[in-house]
Amino acid sequence: MTEALTLFPTRTWSPRLMARLAGVLYATAVFTAVFNEFIAPGAMGSAAFFLATGCYAAVMVLLYAILRPVHPSVALIATFTGLTGFMVDALHWRPYSINADIPLHGLFCVLVGWLFFRSGFVPRILGALMAFAGLVWLLYLSPSLAHSLAPYNSIAGLLGEAIPMLWLLFMGVGDPQGKKLPHATEVLS
User: For a tag on the chain, would you pick the N or C end, based on fewer CB atoms within 10 A?
Assistant: First the structure.
């Protein structure tokens, strides 16, 4: 059995490639959503939702793969929370008139921001921005507060989330701290 496994060499993706792919998929998800929501409302119908959701779900999985060496449990919780937010959105679940997918996404962003900040893979300010975006999205737990702060809260959240993702797209991730992290050899090799 082990001989059969050695016949098929496995190739792992570099964290830099995964980060850039996450950036491309994030940009695709945002542009698809913006196009369908503001430029040509409804033009793509549910296909736009599924394209944007699929791209962003892939971003979450890639971020898990990149950030797992930092703290495996937190990375897994972040990914699970983010994917749960998509499921809640697809089901249009609105308990107590709260758009529940947005706070779930906020928790995802806070956790990813903490992982970015702790990792050293990207400048710490990007982790802080991502965590800030998450806190902004958590404001949607109070619909009246979120409504009173609109549109500034959405702009702040989008910028806080987009800047780190654009960094991933154009710069990828480094590994100055990576070799010091537990499990780092799994991703950085």
Answer: N
Q: Are 124 and 117 in contact (CB under 8 A)?
A: yes
5 — pLDDT class (breaks 50, 70, 90):
very low
Question: Are 185 and 155 spatial neighbours (Cβ–Cβ below 8 Å)?
Answer: no
Sorted by where each begins, the domain ranges of the chain are: 13-188
Is 133 within 8 Å of 179 (Cβ atoms)?
no
Digit-coded pLDDT (tens) for 97-112: 888 999 999 999 999 9
Task: Report which listed range, 9-13, 30-34, 123-127, 185-189, is most confident.
Answer: 123-127
* DSSP-derived secondary structure for 77-120: HHHHHHHHHHHHHHTT--GGG--THHHHHHHHHHHHHHHHHHH-
pLDDT, averaged across the chain: 86
Longest Cα separation, the chain:
64
pLDDT at 47 over 90: no
SS3 state of residue 182:
coil
Least Cα distance to 99 among 165, 145, 36 occurs for 145
pLDDT over 80 at 4, yes or no: no
Report the alpha-carbon angle 34-38-105, nearest 5.
40
Contact, 67 vs 115, CB < 8 A?
yes
- Which residue in 109, 140, 139 sits closest to 127, CA to CA? 109
